[in-house]
Amino acid sequence: MDTKHSAEMFKHFEKQDEVLMEAYRAMSHELHLLQVVEEMLMQKLYELMNITGLLKKEKRGDNDSSPFRTYKLMQLEIEAHQQESCTSCRIYREAFEAFLGSEPFTRDLATSSHWRRGGRGRGRMESYLNENFGGVKSKNSTEESLERWRKLVGVVKNPKRRFRFTANLSKRSEAAAMKRTNHEKLRVAVLVSKAALQFIHGITLHSEYNVPDEVKKAGFQICPDELGSIVEGHDVKKLKVHGGVNGIADKLSTSTTNGLTATEESLNHRQNIYGVNKFTESQVRSFWVFVWEALQDMTLIILAVCACISLFVGIATEGWPKGAHDGLGIVASILLVVFVTATSDYRQSLQFKDLDKEKKKISVQVTRDGFRQKISIYDLLPGDLAHLAIGDQVPADGLFMSGFSLLINESSLTGESEPVNVNADNPFLLSGTKVQDGSCKMLVTTVGMRSQWGKLMATLSEGGDDETPLQVKLNGVATIIGKIGLVFAVVTFAVLAEGLIKHKFQEGSYLSWSADDALELLEYFAVGVTIVVVAVPEGLPLAVTLSLAFAMKKMMNDRALVRHLAACETMGSATSICSDKTGTLTTNHMTLVKACICGNINEVNNHEEIKDVCSQVPDVALKVLLQSIFYNTGGEVVINQAGKLEILGTPTETALLEFGLLLGGDFQVARQETKIVKVEPFNSEKKRMGVVLQLPGGGYRAHCKGASEIILAACDKVLDSAGNAVLLDESTFSQLKSTIESFASEALRTLCLAYMEIENGFTADEQIPINGFTCIGIVGIKDPVRPGVKESVAICRSAGITVRMVTGDNINTAKAIARECGILTDDGVAIEGPDFRSKSLEEMMDLIPRLQVMARSSPMDKHTLVKHLRTMFNEVVAVTGDGTNDAPALHEADIGLAMGIAGTEVAKESADVIILDDNFSTIVTVTKWGRSVYINIQKFVQFQLTVNVVALIVNFSSACITGHAPLTAVQLLWVNMIMDTLGALALATEPPNDELMKRSPVGRKGSFISNTMWRNILGQALYQFIVIWYLQREGKGLFQLGGPDSDLALNTLIFNSFVFCQVFNEISCREMEKIDVFHGILENYVFTAVITCTIIFQFIIVQFLGDFANTTPLTLYQWFACVFIGFLGMPISAAIKMVPVGCK
């Protein structure tokens, strides 16, 4: 190597060292910042501890000295600091929020008089549940709270089944570790690529890459592993070796303008070499896996052992088949329970699988065969040209080809929140990341499991969804009752065994034990174990899952896709809905109907009126107008496969582009005349978008459009009737402003279009000017209110739910639409975003309850409103959103609702429910289903707790007083199945009715096990206990039973009456407060089928399976008596419902 070349390389190494030293200095600066922040934190935390001390001394009504205000003001102060993009502020805020969430602070805050709302008077069980199982929220629960309740659940018969639909925390920690590894890997890759850029600049590199034979035969020049290493490793050197992005495109046999050739044969070849864009998913578990899991129940295993011993001893002493009846009866009961349970669980798993498929349905715009088209993300292949815009998810690994102002958020992959600027110098795009700003055309290189997102998803998918608050609470209920049941079971067995031993002592044969004695003792043990089976309500938490799965499936048919289970139950508690206007309350089918160009106001509803516009507007002004429409747009006019013009873009862009075409413009021709220098996409903070063009004759021109009053305020000139730019005087400004108000009062969406000549040159690194523009004109776009919205808003009002409109539109437009929808009332307040955010905390406390419309709002205004509603007013808030910037509000809300049609992938990712038809009426349907889920679970809990109470008390009291249990192990297993799996199927799948929307919402502080439920449980349990006890004492005389089989006949009557009491109680539980429980019963096919099957099986068990179930056939009169005893529970239940109780 010559000296000159060595010196050149040495310089490159020096530059590389400079890059690395710069990175090191940045890290050192961060460490210094952390030390400064640590000192700040210690001081602030000391102040906060003083505040929590003040909480204890707080006097009721002393608002001025209340730490509540101090706490709120400190929050607002930190929010102001958060607006600055400094690391220290972010760390400071995170530490502050961590402290606010700590137990001492929240406990003291909860006992404060300002926060204590209805805490007294709750039942002990509710208090216990809130204290020990209330830490899990509907979303964003901490790992600690998820771990805590698991440790508290002591008595679990079948952990595999109980915890099946809960988060896998170990898998989540694996995913978090992978994110950290990705972060480090990408950081190193970026540093290395910077150094490599310095090193390889000006040096000719030679390729040592050999193309595999199978790749060559398929017609390609690069293999998938090589492609993966380039993008994943940010390998600039390899990229240059392969000829850059265009070289990669050539090697993938794709055109950089027309995309792939989409013949079936070529796509199949490509798929065989590079794979499909799908991630490895866990296989659907077969039915037999669920059978095996159901068999893992500890109590069933013990019973199975008892059955085997009973079989062995029985056959040895009494022979076959008589000696096998008891053992075979238990075995048959166990198998029946197992198969019914497994069938129910298997069906649930299939429902969740279907819903998972729906969640992953994402479409992407690509160019194939020269045509823009929308395809499924799963059909994407290396070589495809994908078009990405703000809010999209990057569908695969790839390379940037062209675009403007592209910012990528890689936090989903790396955990790093700082966006990355992607351009020709840094062209690497990773799948799963989000487009935060800008737009681009991307060359797809790596798909499926070869991509970084694919590897991460394989781990993430195994983590599962968080468990819902109801699931956790019912796990708590199951734990409490399980412990009580265990005590009862032990005592029952002890009492029964003590009776046998006492009898043996009295006979003097306590040292002589026969096989019959052993069988009797074994039967007592089986009864004790079966009491545990009945007492531990394993079905309670699983009933929530069953009800939620059923609701989610039905909601899909009603055009709502639930992404998170908890959203179903939380939506039923919603007290406030903050809704967008465009596309949610309106149809989102926009047409431009009015225009004020060069001072002339025209309606443009038909071709004749458009001709009038063309005749009135001078040619020079028309040219500038068309240039503004065709260049300053996020939409596009393309020729589709049918050979017709098709407009792509948002409804607003579509309306403007359609207007431009009607004016005689040609989009394709216009776009080729001028070069675009810079694009600033629409920003909901600035309410504007802009573009800078390099004109053919030299010079630059900027165009901007957006919120009319904002763009008009940025103008100092206006086009007059002759098309000349003249100064914008006060009278013309007032005239244009009144035009905006006139359009807005007609419920039209107004936009102002403006331009300016840039004389001193312009580069892409500069910002587009924000004032000094010339107003071209103002347009009014009509977006009609959706049919049925007014009725839906009225339903929400009758249901105690406040609907608020939060929109970026003009306040007059917003007020007109809000009045038409019935949202804005005479005593309601409409306010603009800038006014809202300027209010003090005290003013907000007074304003928010009356606030019904917020116009010209920014995403942070929406976020602030949602946060104050949740924290200051304790509301359960649902919020709609469709844009990327709506993600913080969707995340903050109790229920985030993203729009399925207009919504970006970022918004959908942050949402809990996706409204597939973007219709407000669908939101009301989701609320109705949410209330239905909540009430259905309450019905099931009421039913199951009644059976628990009666079964425990009857068997325990009988064992203590008479020395034997009236219900055998087989009978108790059958009762357990009625109240567990079949009961959940019947009551947890009740469809919603219109009456649900006439009740007040549960809200955030509602008790799950209400006083109404306790009244019904205790009243019905008392009746059943009295009936069973009376039958035990007087049954033989009542039914004139005699002979050796009288005890068996009486126990059969008790068992039969007990089962029919549960059947009719199940019907009574359909309504917790209403007398009429038969309304709509035949419309619920599941309920009807469960009740019918229960009665049929009960008849078979009693009449034909006596040897196995310890029953004897009953006469017609006895059957009638049993049914009548069960039926009598219904009028008694109706009478109990008339007893007034407190509202909690």
From TrEMBL:
Pfam families documented for this protein: CaATP_NAI (PF12515), Cation_ATPase (PF13246), Cation_ATPase_C (PF00689), Cation_ATPase_N (PF00690), E1-E2_ATPase (PF00122)
EC number: 7.2.2.10
Main location: membrane
Subcellular localization(s) per the UniProt record: Membrane
Enzyme kind, highest EC tier: translocase
Domain Cation-transporting P-type ATPase N-terminal positions: 241-315
Gene Ontology annotations for the cellular component aspect, listed alphabetically: plasma membrane
A single MF term (Gene Ontology): ATP binding
Function of the molecule: This magnesium-dependent enzyme catalyzes the hydrolysis of ATP coupled with the translocation of calcium from the cytosol out of the cell, into the endoplasmic reticulum, or into organelles.
Family: Belongs to the cation transport ATPase (P-type) (TC 3.A.3) family. Type IIB subfamily.
Name of protein: Calcium-transporting ATPase
Organism: Ensete ventricosum (Abyssinian banana)
